[in-house]
């Protein structure tokens, strides 16, 4: 059975999410949640000289949101923090490489939403 | 199990081959006879009701009135004048809440249950806020039954939550309660609860949300002795856009309307307006004429199949689903509500698998279930869940549908079950 959404790479990132788990020495933190289904993701990042040195994520969510977070954190390592603000849903769709229905879009974009909200952690 | 071959009465199955529709608790499918009746109105006597004097208007008026009578009989109401047509059950409940606002005295309280659908939860919560009265909640056990007896009650976020005996008292002005939970499927013992509430406060207003009950079980509003009752046509094979508010004549008499405008006045002058009697008082503007007219065909269809027969059929299928799922998934599946419950609703969670993923993968196999909080967030919060998956059965479902669901869920487990 051909699952349009649950393709190999999505299942892979869902089963073995990259960069999963909070970062103790994170300098920045950003969170987003989907009240409709209870998905909630937190991005933890170490930012030095305006560049995202390391980025992890924690939280709960459906397979799509977890896979998206995993893919996104893989992509964002080494990226200037300013560039995250310029990222669009098209960029996210290009990462995901799956057809997202309007209902699942919030799931696919939740990680990016959290990343965009990355701000200095109050120490 | 007597064979029920209802799919042939629903044109959608000709257009959606292999559709396994298991979301009737959200909205039921519509039989051909209902759609035909709507079309007949639009194509042969398309006119306003209660307004024109020409022949097609007379026919529209008569057909509309006939549905009112049909619904009154369906509910065993005293009179068709106790039947108000609204857009849906949600609007019906809102009409009552808004109408009661001026008569809620400070120092009183309004009570709902923790398992109410938001439509019968939020209006009362907001009414309490607006009138400065206490909002209280009757709790439920994990098996989906309400906590009726005992003194247990505690504060949760400024809301008193506890047993019915503890939260309903002589100052309770309104009790809003469901006739059947849209998540658990459980049916509270309404007569017992209503009697207890009236003993606590003889003047109490009791409103029943019968949206999930009306499609399946006989409702007798006189026997129930509630003051208001709401349900929707679209959950019982009727058209969308039609709901019913039943009210005891004495209660409707003193209820001010929420929506005002045409068709519900006695006299309008520059300075003042007098409203007409119920039920028209609550039907301002042009209603969903086609929908109301066709609704009686849905009632007729249900009665021809037999409400009890149809429900037994749905219950049996739900029971099969519960049994097979428990056998296959063991403790990896949590079925919400009592294990031995008899409803046509199967709400569940699969360990480690998000409800949305369950629904999405089933959707790829043409199986329609619902995932989320089902407009019952307080219920899910109490269970420590953000959501669940829900399959619900109706008279057009078959054993094949149960098999499809079970096989589909096995596939979900294979696809998304954590390897560790």
What would a concise description of this structure say?
The complex is a heterodimer of chains A (123) and B (420). With 123 residues, chain A is of the alpha+beta class.
Layout of strands and helices, then pairs:
The complex is a heterodimer of chains A (123) and B (420).
Chain A: H1 8-15, E1 28-34, E2 39-48, E3 51-60, H2 63-76, H3 81-86, H4 89-96, H5 102-116, E4 119-120
Antiparallel strand pairs in A: 1-2, 1-4, 2-3
Chain B: H1 12-15, E1 20-21, H2 32-44, H3 55-74, E2 83-86, H4 89-100, E3 109-113, H5 122-131, E4 134-138, E5 153-156, E6 159-162, H6 164-167, E7 172-178, H7 190-200, E8 205-209, H8 221-224, E9 228-232, E10 243-247, H9 249-253, E11 265-268, E12 273-275, H10 289-305, H11 307-329, E13 333-335, E14 345-350, H12 355-363, E15 367-368, E16 370-372, H13 377-382, E17 388-392, H14 399-416
Parallel strand pairs in B: 1-15, 3-4, 3-7, 4-6, 7-8, 8-9
Antiparallel strand pairs in B: 2-10, 5-6, 9-10, 11-12, 13-14, 14-17, 16-17
Describe it:
- The complex is a heterodimer of chains A (123) and B (420).
- Chain A is built from five helices and four strands.
- With 123 residues, chain A is of the alpha+beta class.
- Chain A has a four-stranded antiparallel β-sheet, covered by helices on one side.
- Chain A starts with 7 loop residues before the first helix and ends with a strand.
- The mean pLDDT of chain A is 92.
- Chain B has 420 residues and is an alpha/beta fold.
- The longest helix of chain B has 23 residues, at 307-329.
- Chain B starts with 11 loop residues before the first helix and ends with a helix.
- The A-B interface holds A 1-6, 11, 14-15, 36-39, 60-64, 104, 107 and B 354-357, 360-361, 364-365, 371-373, 385-387, 411, 415-416, 418-419.
The number of distinct β-strands of chain B equals 17
Assign the structural class of chain A, choosing from mainly alpha, mainly beta, alpha/beta, alpha+beta, or little secondary structure: alpha+beta
Structural class of chain B: alpha/beta
Q: Strand order across the biggest sheet of chain B?
A: 2-10-9-8-7-3-4-6-5
Overall pLDDT metric of chain B? 95
Q: Spell the H/E element sequence of chain A.
A: HEEEHHHHE
N- to C-terminal distance of chain A? 50 Å
Low-confidence stretches of chain A: none
**Helix coverage percent of residues of chain B?**
25-40%
Query: In what range is the share of β-strand residues of chain A?
Result: 15-25%
Shape of chain A: globular
Oligomer: heterodimer
In one word, what is the shape of chain B? globular
Largest sheet of chain B: 9 strands, mixed
Beta-strand residue fraction of chain B? 15-25%
Low-confidence stretches of chain B: none
The count of β-strands of chain A is 4
């Amino acid at each position: 059975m051909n699952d349009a959404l649950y393709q190999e790479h999505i299942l892979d990132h869902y089963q073995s999410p990259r960069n999963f788990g909070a970062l103790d020495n994170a300098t920045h933190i950003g969170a987003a949640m989907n009240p409709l289904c209870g998905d909630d993701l937190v991005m933890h990042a170490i930012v030095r000289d305006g560049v995202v040195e390391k980025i992890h994520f924690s939280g709960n969510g459906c397979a799509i949101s977890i896979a998206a977070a995993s893919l996104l954190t893989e992509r964002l390592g080494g990226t200037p923090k300013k560039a995250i603000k310029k990222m669009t849903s098209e960029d996210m769709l290009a990462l995901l490489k799956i057809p997202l229905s309007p209902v699942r879009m919030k799931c696919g974009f939740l990680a990016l939403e959290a990343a965009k909200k990355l701000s200095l952690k109050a120490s | 199990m007597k064979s029920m071959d209802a799919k042939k009465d629903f044109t959608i199955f000709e257009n959606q081959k292999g559709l396994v529709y298991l979301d009737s608790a959200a909205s039921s499918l519509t039989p051909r006879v209902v759609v035909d009746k709507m079309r007949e109105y639009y194509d042969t006597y398309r006119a306003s009701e209660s307004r024109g004097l020409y022949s097609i208007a007379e026919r529209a008026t008569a057909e509309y009135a006939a549905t009112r009578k049909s619904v009154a009989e369906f509910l065993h109401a005293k009179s068709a004048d106790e039947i108000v047509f609204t857009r849906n059950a949600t609007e019906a409940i809102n009409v009552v809440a808004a109408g009661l606002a001026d008569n809620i005295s400070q120092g009183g309280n309004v009570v709902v249950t923790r398992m109410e659908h938001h439509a019968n939860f939020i209006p009362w919560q907001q009414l309490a806020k607006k009138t400065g009265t206490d909002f209280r909640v009757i709790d439920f056990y994990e098996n989906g039954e309400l906590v009726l007896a005992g003194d247990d009650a505690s504060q949760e976020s400024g809301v008193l939550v506890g047993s019915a005996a503890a939260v309903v008292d002589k100052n309770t002005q309104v009790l809003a309660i469901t006739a059947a939970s849209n998540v658990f499927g459980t049916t509270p013992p309404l007569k017992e609860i209503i009697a207890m509430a009236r003993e606590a406060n003889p003047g109490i207003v009791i409103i029943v949300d019968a949206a999930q009950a009306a499609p399946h079980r006989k409702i007798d509003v006189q026997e129930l002795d509630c003051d208001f009752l709401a349900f929707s046509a679209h959950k019982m094979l009727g058209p969308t856009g039609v709901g019913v508010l039943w009210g005891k004549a004495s209660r409707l008499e003193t209820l001010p309307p929420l929506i005002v405008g045409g068709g519900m006045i006695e006299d309008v002058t520059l300075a003042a307006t007098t409203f007409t009697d119920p039920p028209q008082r609550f039907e301002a503007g042009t209603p969903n004429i086609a929908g109301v007219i066709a609704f009686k065909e849905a009632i007729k269809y249900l009665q021809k199949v037999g409400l009890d027969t149809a429900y037994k059929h749905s219950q049996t299928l739900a029971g099969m689903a519960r049994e097979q799922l428990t056998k296959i998934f063991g403790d990896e599946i949590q079925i919400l509500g009592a294990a031995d419950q008899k409803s046509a609703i199967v709400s569940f969670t699969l360990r480690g698998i998000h409800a949305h993923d369950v629904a999405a993968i089933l959707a790829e196999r043409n199986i329609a279930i619902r995932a989320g909080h089902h407009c019952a967030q307080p219920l899910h919060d109490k269970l420590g869940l953000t959501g669940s998956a829900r399959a619900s059965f109706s008279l057009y479902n078959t054993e094949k549908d149960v098999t499809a669901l079970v096989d589909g869920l096995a596939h979900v487990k294979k696809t998304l079950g954590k390897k560790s």
